[in-house]
Amino acid sequence: MAAVRGQPLQALGSKELNARAQHNITPLKSTRRINDENALPLKDEQQQPQQQQLQDENQLRKEKAKRKKEKLSSLCKTPPSLIRTRAGKDYRRGLFLGEGGFARCFQIRDDSGAVFAAKTVAKASIKSDKTKTKLLSEIKIHKSMNHTNIVKFIDCFEDDANVYILLEICPNQSLMDLLKKRKVLTEPEVRFFMTQIIGGIKHMHTRRVIHRDLKLGNIFFDPDMNLKIGDFGLAAALKKDTDRKYTICGTPNYIAPEVLTGKTAGHSYEVDIWSIGVMIYALLIGKPPFQSKDVSLIYERIKKNDYAFPEDKPCSEAAKDLITSILTTDPLKRPNLDEILESEFFKGEFPARITTESLICAPDYRGLDRMHSQLNFINCKKASGLIQQPTRNPVEILRTDLESEQPMTILPQSLSPGNTKSKYKEITEANNRTRKLEELSNQTGKSRRLDDGSRVLATQPVKFSDTVLKHECLSTLNGMLSAERESRLRTTRSQFTACKTPVLISKWVDYTNKYGFSYQFSSDDVGVLFNDGTTLIRTTRHNMFWFITDDTVEGWLASEYHISEIPDEFSRKVEIADFFANYMKVNLCKVSTEEELLNEKEEIFLRRYTRSDQFVMFEMSNGSIQFNFKDHNKICISQTGTVLTYISPDRTSETFLLSTIYREGYIPNVQRDIGLQSKLEAIKDALREKVNLH
Ligand SMILES: Nc1ncnc2c1ncn2[C@@H]1O[C@H](COP(=O)(O)OP(=O)(O)OP(=O)(O)O)[C@@H](O)[C@H]1O
């Protein structure tokens, strides 16, 4: 049906679209997306003996695909050289860019000279309501995406013959085209590409979108050789994270086993993780792992997890380990996106960027040292939105990063106003004593001294809280560097002498999407860093609590109250702090089991915390900086960078002079390799970053 000018997109040809329906609700045996991704150039060593029947089926499929392509070309005629939209905008059609099973793509230029890609879908091919709904869903989902590694959705319009989806142009073709030219890619290139792809996928997944058709042919290069994920034709948006999808769809080589076998159990985000494994394998080995000439054989091999690493294609053990862990049949046993990036594979050479040289030949990254690689990796992750940029707000969070240590229960119900308010006596005039942080620091910061012996806040008038934070990071970094230097001198004590363990953060709950970040110290005091930047500390001492505000002129201001004298404006916050305290008591394990810690009664608070993909960093008001690493090892650097506390995953802690640890290269009583050196490097990098970025 020809649409009439002035009709909105929704009114599009309602009777037709079955081409798309076959696309999206894909019966496995259909020809849907059985395209060049199945016919990668290399020969398949593991191919089963061809039977006559299979050959016939293949022939039939090829013919069907050919007919479909011809039908597409006949339906989707080349658009006119001048395309007029109903909104009165003119576009000039340019070169033909390529075609898929459903759409043809052309260059298109607007009045200002800006060039886009126009994915063109013939209205004549939109035959059923179902197909129309699918197209609208693709448009809606793609439109909602906004990420540097996802093809930008610009606009959508129609003329009499076609629907045009205007997209950011990706002129350097797809990863599939690159692989065809190059046969295999180098590991540093794959690391770079996968980081960008994972950035795009994380954006989708945190918005509850599953792509379901991630493959090399759907990932395009922009003019600067950055990758952009495109084609949301099979994407699904979940209403809630626990929802499952049941439609069997995808591209044969990339389909996850649970899609093939889980007709009743359904599938979810893990299908995209599986595709990552297939893509890494394909880029390094030159063909997808389960490739076979016959589609049903591909499915058999996927179901049986039947693939191997060919001996004639050299590939590092780290790459093999990562691929093996991703291509696990049980979707729940696959690593998540963060775990993939933390794998050994990503610790190798990492280029700063990919140049167009890669389009022609294998670039040589042999000169890249470890330090530069690490820096490039961090920068690449930052550019792909995988590391939250610091803000002026002390609450630096990765809101979307769901972790085991986050609360699994839903808080709002139990925190509904009114139900606990009456527990406290409300008074109108607070008997509070407001003191400057300097006083608080005088009372509590006994251990926090600078190299010259003076107190941080006493010698350095606090103008802004950021200045204090920067100063603390700098003195800790300097302390660590001196300890490292000292360790090389003969004078360093080579015997480990146990030092006093500082107050540690023993439990924490990130609930910043609602209230704030709550933590419990080893002294049992509980604090909440609220989203508005204020802190409330519930001390165990005489039922006192502290209310700390981030003052832009004075630094932090601390007010002390007795629990029986809660001013109105704080009652809700106390209620929330109590809730968190109870939650942590019931649900979380303490970081350290050392009993002597309980005797510590320093009054300190958390100034800032930062969550990165490697660790959570806690900066405390007494200058201690604690790092909880993802592998459950924890390190706290205290006493201006001179003392290290190590807390093992089984929650025992030990504290020693950092210079001795540097000199000896290990921590006493720790038998396993905890990657101490790289953890200390990561800590120094984090401190450097804090110092430079403020
Ligand atoms: N943003 C873009 N920039 C440049 N070329 C593009 C862009 N998007 C798509 N193309 C080209 O158009 C072709 C078809 O696009 P696309 O894969 O989105 O269509 P499709 O019909 O949905 O494909 P499929 O059969 O994979 O579902 C691509 O293979 C590519 O060559």
TrEMBL record:
Superkingdom to which the source organism belongs: Eukaryota
What are the POLO box domain coordinates in residue numbering?
504-586, 605-692
> What are the BP-aspect GO terms?
mitotic spindle organization
Reaction catalysed by this chain?
L-threonyl-[protein] + ATP = O-phospho-L-threonyl-[protein] + ADP + H(+)
Compositionally biased region (Low complexity): 47-57
Q: Provide the residue positions that the database annotates as binding ATP.
A: K123
Name the keywords, alphabetized: ATP-binding, Kinase, Nucleotide-binding, Repeat, Serine/threonine-protein kinase, Transferase
InterPro entries given in the database record: Kinase-like_dom_sf (IPR011009), POLO_box_1 (IPR033701), POLO_box_2 (IPR033695), POLO_box_dom (IPR000959), POLO_box_dom_sf (IPR036947), Prot_kinase_dom (IPR000719), Protein_kinase_ATP_BS (IPR017441), Ser/Thr_kinase_AS (IPR008271)
| Molecular-function GO terms, alphabetical | ATP binding; protein serine/threonine kinase activity
Q: Which Enzyme Commission numbers does its entry carry?
A: 2.7.11.21
Q: Which GO terms describe its cellular component?
A: cytoplasm; kinetochore; nucleus; spindle pole; spindle pole body
> Taking every annotated instance into account, which residue ranges of this chain make up the domain Protein kinase?
91-346
> Positions of the region Disordered?
1-74
Is Nucleotide-binding among this UniProt entry's keywords?
Answer: yes
PROSITE patterns, A to Z: POLO_BOX, PROTEIN_KINASE_ATP, PROTEIN_KINASE_DOM, PROTEIN_KINASE_ST
Name the PANTHER family on file. Answer: CELL CYCLE SERINE_THREONINE-PROTEIN KINASE CDC5_MSD2, SERINE/THREONINE-PROTEIN KINASE PLK
Q: Which family does it belong to?
A: Belongs to the protein kinase superfamily. Ser/Thr protein kinase family. CDC5/Polo subfamily.
Know the name of this protein? Serine/threonine-protein kinase
What is the originating organism of this protein?
A: Wickerhamomyces pijperi (Yeast)
